[in-house]
Structure formats: C-alpha cells, structure tokens
Here is the input.
Amino acid sequence: MSLQQLYAVLLAGGIVLLACIAAARTASRLGLPGLLLFLALGVLLGEDVLGIDFDDAQLAQTLGTAALAIILIEGGLSTRWTDIRRLLLPSSLLATVGVAVSVLLTAAGAHLLLGMNWQLALLLGAIVSSTDAAAVFSVLRALPLPRRMAGMVEAESGFNDAPTVILVLVFSTADLPDPAAVAGQVSYQLVAGAVIGLLIGWAGTAALRYVALPATGLYPLATVGLGVIAFAAAGAANASGFLAAYLAGIVLGNAVLPHRAATRSFAEGIGWLAQIGLFVMLGLLVSPSELPAALLPATIVGLVLLLLARPASVIACLIGFRTSWREQAFISWAGLRGAVPIVLATFPIVAAVPGSRQLLNIVFVLVVMFTLIQGPTLPALARLLGVTQPGQTRDADIESAPLDVLDADLLTLTVPPGSRLHGVEIFELRLPKPSIVTLIIRDGDPIVPEPDTQLREGDDVLIVTTPATRERVERRLRAVGRRGRLAHWYGEHGDPDPHPSHTTAKGDTRPWRSRTPPSPAPEPSTTATPGKETTSALSSPTQAGGSSCSTTEPTPTPRRTR
Here is the structure.
C-alpha cells in the first residue's frame, strides 16, 4: 500500500467514523439503538449502492469475534457488582436454560412453519437466542426502571453470548451431535471460561494495585489488555472466551484500582469504536438485493421468537423467583437482538453449511425489523405494565471519579426535575461522616455551599467521600431524592431497587407514593422569605410506623478539603 492509498483509507475511515458518531446522536434523539443506523450506513457503502465490495465471511467472523470480545470487556468494566450479585442465579438461568428453551421452540417453529431441515432450524434458533443489553439500554437509559430488573437483563446479556456461540459451533458440524455430548461440552466451556476469567481478573487486580506504572495512560491499556488476555487464554484452552472476558472485566471494573475513571472512559471509547466497526462491516456483508426474499421467513421466525420462545424461556427461568408477571412480560419484550446474532450467522457460512447464506439474510432482516418494533415501544410498555410510573421522580444521577492520592471518591450529583432533593438544605442531607459537599454548579456558576444552602433542580453537586462510606452516601442521596428530608422517617433507605413493601409504615400496605404521613405527624415548620426557606429542627416522631430521622442520622459539620 502506497502512502497515497493509506491517506485515502484513513480519510474514508475518519469520515465513516464521524458519520457513525453523528448517527449515534441522531438515534438517541429518535429513541432507537444506534446499531440500526450503523447497519444502514454499512449497507449504503456496500456493493449494491456505493460499490464497496466486501464478501469475506471468514474475515467478518474473525473481526466480529474480536469486536465482540472488546464489547464484552467494556460491558464487564461498566457493570457494578452490587447491582448483579443478587441476580447471578436468575440471570445465569436465563443465559443457559432460557437459551435452551428459546432455541428449541424457535427451531420447532422454523421447521414446522418454514419447512427448514432440523440443522438449519436449530442453527437459526441458536443464532437469534442471544440478547443485546447495549441495544436495550440505549433506549431505556432515560427511564426510571427498577435496578433489579435492568440488572437482570444486563447480566443475562453478558452471560448468554457464550452458550449461544457454543451451540452455533456445535450445530454447524456435519452431523448433529448427541444431546448429552452437547450438554457436556457446554458445561466444560462455561466452567473453564469462568475460572480463567476470574483468575486473570484477580491476578491483574493484584498486579495493578502494587505495580506503579510510569504514566497514567498505561493503566487503561493494562486493564483492557488483561481482558483480552482472559479472552485469548480461554479460547486457547477450548473454553468460552466471551464469558472469560466479561467476568475478567467485572472483577477489574469493581476493584479499587488507580485511575478507574480514566480506565472506564477509555474502555467506553474503544467499546464504541468496536461497535461502530462491527455494525458497518456487517452492513457491508449483506446484499440488499437478497433481503426482500428473507422478509417473510424473518417475520415468521421473529413472531415465534417474540411471542412464544422468549416469553416461555423467561417464565421457565423466573417462575421460582419473586418476579411479578408484569416484570416477566417486560423482560420478555426487552430481549432485543443486536450484533451478536449477525456475527453468529457468519459461522455456518464459514463452515459451508448448505443454506447458510439464507440464514444470514433472515437474521439481518429479523434484527432490523424487530428492533424497529420493540425499541420504540419499550418505554410505552414499561408505563403500561407499571414497572415504571408516569411522574415518578428519577434517582439522582451519580458518577464517581477517584482521588487516588487522598484515597477518596469525588461524587457528582445531578438533581433531576421533580426530585425531592429540590429545596433540601445541605445540612438536611445528613451524609455519613466524613463526607462533605464541596461545590454546587448552578446555571453554570460555582457556589461554595453553606450548611443552609438549598439544592435546586438542575444543580450539579460535588461531594467528597471515602470508598468505605461511598455506598452509604449514595443510598442517602437516593433516599432523599425519593422522599425528601424526612426519608428515613418514612422508612426509605435508598435501596437501589426499592420495593413498595419495604417503604411503607408498619401495618400500612399501600405503596409509599400514595401514602400520607401518620397522624399526628410532626412537620417541619418553615418561615418563607423571598428566595429562601428556613427549616426548623425536627422532633423525633413517636407514632407507630415512623422511625426517627434526627436520632438515627447524625448531622455532619461540613468541612473544607484541600
């Protein structure tokens, strides 16, 4: 390649990258996953439109697998262990038993309704049984979903790539294997992949804690490199590299490591780059002229998957857990498909399975069609099912950046519209010691807060705390955001996934949002002056069902930090 050709390639690549970034912004405003516009851009660049000829399924499989590994590493680094630790069992069942149920029912539908032979039908069922959390949360990130339900879908999406890849590889062989052999192979790959991922994650954590690197930028590179090592090591051991990469990312992302914020930002950037490259490449791989013939079979298989296979798998896996039918219905509908099924569709092409090119077209149309149907309807369905409610205040948006030298965390709190934090004075937050509110940014102007400074909607609040108290600080902020300055008295403790039964007074089974305080209940007396509200000291309620706010939550004295 000459320098002129290199310049041309880099220029074209840069323009495509910027176009994809603009497409992601447009998709966000339209409430659609960005993958659709990335795929459309790839189709537009293809041989049937602008003339770029790309038909190498082997290269697409190789690059797609590498991109998926990067995406899973980034997903693990951004997954909070506190959000999923109680959800490991149900999400693991959804990723294994749920996948098996979905594969069998989808394959049966394709065999009976489309006349596919069993090998193609099972391949199709395995290919489309993997969900895509990135597509789901790109649509729902603005909705106040229960963290328990969102975490379950996210964890399932991180875990179910591994078994689907194994099944696709197994079904791509010439002869269908014995079910017992399939179960044994899946079990080995999952267990071995999990062990390798956890071991590399723990070893990498120990090394990064005690080895001082000469530059800050090396820590993100080392962290992502450890995830790549976990993926490659598991693959070399004939285990699940996807599961190893995801688990290594979770271990590294939740460890107390230097420059965590920089690491997550770097991982998010390369994750986006991997997604953009992957989707554009997959759009190039398909031929638009072949897609109309796949429209009817894709619609039939999609309806079987959406209305029968996915709900049956969710019910079969969650029937023994405290999950309401409304949550099960939403989780069923939220099973969006994304890049993984299209990448998996290249595996039978590389294996020269007869009819595999038809599978690629069906999967491509199915992903695009049902993402267009499911994505825009998810917010409305969430409100209809009551898993979120109109007018419900959103939890405070809390992000952290480490202060490594001081062994402290800097939390940024954004007060959203409708939050009960509006009007609360700094001293009424009653943050656990030694936390302190250091700065408020209001309408672009910095304010050094006093104890009686009131929070307002739209404020960005900087809070310095320690790693040991960070979780208690976040819980207190969530509690005040939901129930105001008397949150503890109402029984609201800022759980990440609040349940109505946990936030009602003793003997009162009504949801807390509709409950009025017990009578007689002491109310804060206020003296209104222009632009200010002064709240008097609160007495401890003694009424049954109320717990004291002033006696159980000490009021810290704000102090300055260097």
Q: What stands out?
A: The longest helix spans residues 179-210. Residues 91 and 156 are 5 Å apart (CA to CA).
